[in-house]
Amino acid sequence: MSSVREVNPTVRRIRAPTSLQSLAARITEEIKQGGQKPFRQVIDVSSGDPHRAGMAPISFARQVLAVCFYPELLKDERFPLDVKQRAQQLLGVCRGGSVGSYSLTSCGIPYVLKSVAEFITGRDGGVRSHPEDIIISNGSQKSLKMILHLMASGEGKTQTGVLTPMPCPHTLPALLDDNGLTLVPYQLMEDRGWAVDLDELHRALKNARELCEPRAIYISNPGNPTGHVQDRKTIEEVIRFAATESLVLLADEVYQDSVYGLEKEFNSYKRVLFDMGKEYSETVELISFHSLSNALMGECGLRGGYQEVINMDPAVKTHLKDMQAPSSPAVIQQLALEVMVNAPAPGDPSYETYSQEILHSQRTLSQNAQRACEFLNDLPGMNCQPAMGGIFLYPCLNLPPKVLNEAKMLGVEPDVLYCQRLLEEEGVCLGAGCENGQEDPNYHIRLCVLAPPATLEEILARLSSFQLRLLDTFP
Amino acid sequence: MSSVREVNPTVRRIRAPTSLQSLAARITEEIKQGGQKPFRQVIDVSSGDPHRAGMAPISFARQVLAVCFYPELLKDERFPLDVKQRAQQLLGVCRGGSVGSYSLTSCGIPYVLKSVAEFITGRDGGVRSHPEDIIISNGSQKSLKMILHLMASGEGKTQTGVLTPMPCPHTLPALLDDNGLTLVPYQLMEDRGWAVDLDELHRALKNARELCEPRAIYISNPGNPTGHVQDRKTIEEVIRFAATESLVLLADEVYQDSVYGLEKEFNSYKRVLFDMGKEYSETVELISFHSLSNALMGECGLRGGYQEVINMDPAVKTHLKDMQAPSSPAVIQQLALEVMVNAPAPGDPSYETYSQEILHSQRTLSQNAQRACEFLNDLPGMNCQPAMGGIFLYPCLNLPPKVLNEAKMLGVEPDVLYCQRLLEEEGVCLGAGCENGQEDPNYHIRLCVLAPPATLEEILARLSSFQLRLLDTFP
């Protein structure tokens, strides 16, 4: 390809990432080379990456995976019996007894698919999940990519559109671009804690129908980056909306294990759909995504996830499965998923440690979210909706006009400018709201609060000095 | 999506896989459920998957990865010092010291990129490789998919075409389909041990120019599934051809570590390109692929690979890197790649064991390939070119006319019918030549010969009884 003109036009339209990650990498490298900075290291909480921030992995999971990699450890006295039994069981379902062989089917190892289906059935109070509806992939991004690629078609007015919440997960806009889909924004209601509004859905859809062919609605629940947890009534409304308007429901439920708001609970779209009766449960097309990168496992680096596919036309589903056929998902990730959905039970040797570790993560997350929200709301020029779940806070920035002018002069988004300065001056890397697709004049920043409390305090202290200095310089 | 009509037209055009894998899975399941078969288990050597066939993993790699998963093992006396040092070094380059965090850049962990570049430089006798030219992905299939997606454009006569060897790796045709590219076949010369023929390249390109816009040529060296190893003169010819015709070189060099033919050696396209002088080394666009699924590591289930990108327009390269941005490659796979390219050195505690394991694999592969080739050539109705590298044999079948008629009646490819019967009657799963893109009347089968010698003998014995019975029934 002698020039960019020859590149796939869809690829050319992928929006470029902001400069924040590369700036963070550059500063980190400068420090490593002995460069002097007003801080010892960069703390990056721009994405949901608990281990990077210092959270510990779940011991049971790591022990099982270590033994699977090196089965000689089955003889090791140091590991609890249930770790060794689980590893032996999992090695037994790998072909040739090795994590180094391909999985039997491109959707995943049948035993793991069955475990996932049993987990979902238990989670949803007995609403049956079937292994043949589960497709495992190298992470929920890849699962979503498969579905978006499957649905992509048309150009201009006939191009497939996806109703997308504003704000949305920061990885989503580029994924829509890369698959040649139109992002159809619907605003979440910040003043109602980022709730979904039915009138807004109708408005967004009506507008979109003049520009493209909307064929799906994306939902993030618990909300990334909003921290909102949808109640049952809202979910029912969204399902009815999807049913009436013939939209596929794409439910990102990656943070289903981390709801901590008072009297809040996680309701899966699948369960609510089936509680609404056959009129809905046998017709509405729903794809739900889950991942190892959730709050409590936090195994982002492993890149493993699955999707459950409900009410898809069987011939379409065959196409979906064929898409993955030349390249089955990695095996060790599949074993990690099995451990995630099939935790140690009371009485198992690992149960006590496992429960304590999970409880510790849950408490840290809940206390951090509350602490950070209160702290941010006490800062001048910042306003944060309380989160009820997920691992992000998404405060609103009231930027001084002089900062807005400077951003305009520099040709950079004001929220990106804010984050650049914060990174350069205090070594804290946050996400900019424009990455979450927001274009309105209410600027936002994004931070993951699942970190050791001492790290969170350090972040808040640095952010506070920066914010106060900023408002002092540009009153 | 209420029906297949709404599916992405490109996805609809993906050729369906043959029924062989699902038949193998069904028979395996029947045996598990107690079904009576004339064999105890299915042996599947249709794809290159050494661990599944019973080859052992490299201990050093598995030990390092186990420790990385569970760093408590750093205290363990059982592991050699160099294993622990390597694990500590690798954990040090993971953010938060955990394999559970995302990698810093979407191309891979900088330290691993540097190791890969050093390995390539060493392999190519000092021709420099640069970390910024390396992109790591979840396997060489994914690397190739990125490039194909980048190059995809147009429809009909303007659609991007890729010159593709016949036979080609069996996963390639569906990958081209899925990315909306035209497969432009060029025949390899079976009677010359599957060599590339320059006249045939020109013929194929000329024909193709009336049907699409050929913009790349795919090369598999050592050849999958042919076992051919290209000599330096051929590589020079192909490079000159690509230069003259402005084609991007896509060099699948996954089996670079397994050349065993007498007086044969592996020459990388990169090295030959640079030996040809600046006229070529500064202009010809080359992308070379390597993978953990190679012969000696054999870690297919891990799904890790990299590509080295030479002479790509910088703006195009930025697009390529942005494509992977929302979803960096899995970390544990990257660490496995580091171990692959940076083996224990003489004097290291693990060196002795490592060298013996590698030598054992190499010897098994070489002896198996020779043994199987001789055995197949002794069977009536079969003719096999000797392999010089890679892990497949690809014998030609001389099928009786009655079998061809039966296949026609059943509406199935004759080579697929042959493999189905072999699977049902003898429990051996081979690949059918049509999966490798071959449409000519010379039918072929594909088998991976990297397996323990006893397994290979079992395969050959079963294949022999089947073949003799077939020729007896249909003389």
Description:
- Chains A, B: It catalyses: L-alanine + 2-oxoglutarate = pyruvate + L-glutamate.
- Chains A, B: Pathway: Amino-acid degradation; L-alanine degradation via transaminase pathway; pyruvate from L-alanine: step 1/1.
- Chains A, B: Its EC number is 2.6.1.2.
- Chains A, B: Belongs to the class-I pyridoxal-phosphate-dependent aminotransferase family. Alanine aminotransferase subfamily.
- Chains A, B: It is an enzyme of class 2 (transferase).
- The structure is a homodimer.
- By secondary structure, the first copy, chain A, is α/β, with parallel strands linked by helices.
- The first copy, chain A, has two domains: about 5-55 and about 355-475, Aspartate Aminotransferase, domain 1, CATH 3.90.1150; about 95-340, Type I PLP-dependent aspartate aminotransferase-like (Major domain) (Aspartate Aminotransferase, domain 2, 3-Layer(aba) Sandwich).
- In chain A, about 45% of the residues lie in helices and about 15% in strands.
- Chain A contains 18 helices and 14 strands.
- Chain A has helices at about 10, 20-30, 50-55, 60-70, 80-90, 110-125, 140-150, 170-180, 200-210, 230-245, 270-275, 280, 315-325, 330-340, 350-380, 400-410, 415-425, 455-475, and strands spanning about 45, 135, 160-165, 180-185, 215-220, 250, 285-290, 305-310, 380-385, 390-395, 395, 430, 430, 445-450.
- Chain A has a seven-stranded mixed β-sheet, sandwiched between helices. In chain A, strands 9, 10, 11, 13 and 14 form a five-stranded antiparallel β-sheet that branches.
- In chain A, helix 10 links the parallel strand 5 (about 215-220) and strand 6 (about 250).
- Chain A starts with 8 loop residues before the first helix and ends with a helix.
- Chains A and B meet through helix 1, helix 2, helix 3, helix 4 and helix 7 of A and helix 1, helix 2, helix 3, helix 4 and helix 7 of B.
